[in-house]
Amino acid sequence: MRTIVVFTMISLDGVMQAPGGPEEDNSGGFRFGGWTVPYADESFGSIINAELSGPFDLLLGRKTYEIFASYK
User: What gap in Å lies between CA 20 and CA 26, rounded to an integer?
Assistant: First the structure.
């Protein structure tokens, strides 16, 4: 059985959102998109690079799939 590894950007009050820009997901009137960007640093980058350096599959939710589906 394969292992599922989850990368989650979550605030202390429970808001989960990708590290994209302010317009990435403003559903429900959420106006704080892109909040994770100022907190990313070199250690964050090295962790992401290490995890994504080998072959991997993506398990996407609906919203993320819709974002990815527009790229070819």
Answer: 11
- CA 7 → CA 31, 33, 44, 48, distances in Å? 22, 17, 11, 9
Please tell me the total number of residues recorded for the chain in this structure: 72
How far CA 29 is from CA of 26, 51, 57, in Å, comes to: 6, 33, 31
- pLDDT digit string (tens) for 29-64? 888 777 777 888 888 889 888 888 988 888 888 888
* Lookup: tokens for 67: 């974002």
Which amino acid would we find at residue 42? E
Tokens 């919203």 correspond to: 63
Left, alpha or beta for 35 (phi > 0: left; psi -120 to 50: alpha)?
alpha
Longest CA pairwise span in the chain (Å): 39
